[in-house]
Design brief:
The chain is of the alpha/beta class. The strands form two sheets. Strands 8-9-7-10-6-11-12-13 form an eight-stranded mixed beta sheet, with helices on both faces. Strands 2-1-3-4-5 form a five-stranded parallel beta sheet, with helices on both faces. The structure holds adenosine-5'-triphosphate and magnesium ion (MG). The site of adenosine-5'-triphosphate has 18 residues, from helix 6, strand 12 and helix 14.
Length: about 425
């Protein structure tokens, strides 16, 4: 907002108010406002002039919708509005003039959006949800003070490979060892183990968020998330098995956005099935950690996930973590696995039953419970690599700084993919197609 919004002594502000000239628009607006949890009676009959009049004697709402239809000089009236509005008010104008120049001028004078009549429910809902996000976002976007944020999605190539072990360990290491404010979002809604690994109850936070995405804001995050340590907050669920997941994914995106404002690190435990329904979940993710074991099925699915990531999340840096690696070798060797996926494994975590048992007994994450030993060290290396990504903002090579793994991406153009296993997998894919 660049309008000279007046500073006022008022402290209590309504979440929303509207001044709309015609009944038809009010009839569309009121239910949407109710749905967002605001008072429909704050949708007043009237136009911009009425808004200016009322707001000169009362405090302005967080979000204000004003109708320009009856205004002879919208820009002059908007300036009059600026005089009586409080700082940070997000103003949405409504009108019937379809003129790009007017639209630009309005945006230039600090209006957040301009909606053309006749109003539709969907258009109103989108505009209001967006306005709410703008209102709750930090107001100063000074790049020098802007917090860096790394969002990491951890995806298992197959079930049980240890994706949640990696996700919870990373979140713990960021928050405890590095004192970075961290959010852990467990999107395994029915069977998630994020809370369990930290010896916590999941609570209702994530379920509430899914049911009421419009309620998600800074305050919601503060109240709904479960504290695991001074710097780690988690959001997870243990949804009843007979309750299907009913969401269009809006809640997840909103959560990601809020986390970006409130934390330095976000770790998302992302079951691979979620990629199918909610591909946009990775839109703002910086690092994707693909956890896999060294089996034929996992090789096939790692190939498929990597290919999906290339098409759908090419901006994100990808790390491949082979977990549960047996000293005696796996179902397929590391070299064969790398050949078939046509890139190097960045980190290998040995199979360590003792370490897993120790973590389970203590009710701690694998990374926390195992400070000595190779498995714990490998997990710490992964954490360092992800933290190294802080310095990378141009989508170039991920920072494997501090880690002992191969540089991700360095394996482009590998010739190894042409070996027997690659052919075998290709045949299998073909047969399945
Ligand atoms: N390196 C390891 N050595 C031994 N056990 C391990 C190792 N990593 C993970 N485990 C164990 O394997 C089991 C599965 O791990 P985890 O729940 O993290 O897998 P997941 O990929 O998230 O599974 P799901 O598909 O059910 O979400 C857990 O009991 C965990 O303790
Ligand atoms: Mg899991």
């Amino acid at each position: 907002m660049n309008a000279p919004w007046k500073v006022s002594g008022h402290t209590t502000r309504d979440a929303f108010a509207a001044y709309i000239c015609d009944d038809a628009s009010l009839a569309v607006l009121r239910p949407v406002v109710g749905e967002l949890g605001w008072a429909p009676e704050k949708c007043n009959k009237g136009g911009l002039r009425n808004a200016v009049q009322s707001l000169s004697i009362t405090s302005s709402p967080n979000i204000l919708m004003v109708d320009l239809s009856e205004s002879g000089d919208p820009l002059a009236d908007i300036n009059a509005l600026a005089e009586v509005c409080e700082p940070g008010t997000v103003v949405i104008a409504v009108g019937q003039v379809n003129d790009v120049r007017l639209y630009r001028d309005l945006l230039g004078s600090g209006i957040h959006d301009y909606l053309l009549k006749p109003l539709s429910e969907g258009q109103l809902r989108d505009a209001l949800v967006q306005a709410q996000a703008i209102f709750s976002a930090p107001k100063h976007h000074d790049p020098a003070t802007a917090k860096k944020h790394i969002s990491t999605a951890v995806i298992g190539s197959r079930g049980g490979v240890g994706a949640s072990m990696v996700a919870t360990s990373l979140a713990w290491l960021f928050s405890n060892d590095h004192k970075q404010p961290t959010a852990l979002l467990d999107l395994d809604i029915h069977f998630g183990t994020g809370a369990l690994a930290l010896d916590l109850e999941p609570g209702r936070g994530l379920t509430d968020a899914i049911e009421n995405p419009s309620r998600i804001d800074g305050l919601f995050i503060e109240r709904a998330m479960i504290r695991a340590n001074d710097n780690l907050s988690i959001l997870s669920a243990e949804a009843p098995i007979n309750t299907p997941l009913m969401t269009d994914g809006a809640a997840f995106l909103q959560l990601e956005e809020e986390f970006r404002q409130a934390f330095e690190m976000t770790v998302i435990d992302l079951p691979r099935n979620m990629l199918i329904n909610f591909p946009h979940l990775l839109a703002d993710v910086n690092v994707v950690v693909v956890v896999t074991d060294l089996t034929l099925a996992a090789a096939r699915d790692t190939i498929r996930i990597l290919s999906w990531l290339k098409s759908n999340a090419s901006h994100a840096q990808t790390l491949i973590v082979a977990n549960k690696c047996h000293a005696s070798g796996g179902e397929i060797s590391k070299a064969d696995f790398e050949a078939s996926i046509e890139r190097k494994i960045n980190y290998s975590v040995p199979y360590d039953l003792k370490a897993a048992t120790h973590a389970a007994k203590l009710g701690q994450t694998f990374g926390e419970a195992n400070r000595s030993g190779k498995a714990g060290a490998a997990v710490r290396d992964i954490a360092e690599a992800v933290r190294g990504a802080t310095d990378v903002e141009d989508g170039s090579e991920p920072g494997a700084k501090g880690g002992k793994g191969a540089k991700p991406g360095a394996e482009k153009g590998s010739l190894l993919g042409k070996i027997k296993l690659g052919k075998l997998l290709a045949k299998k894919e073909k047969a399945g197609a």
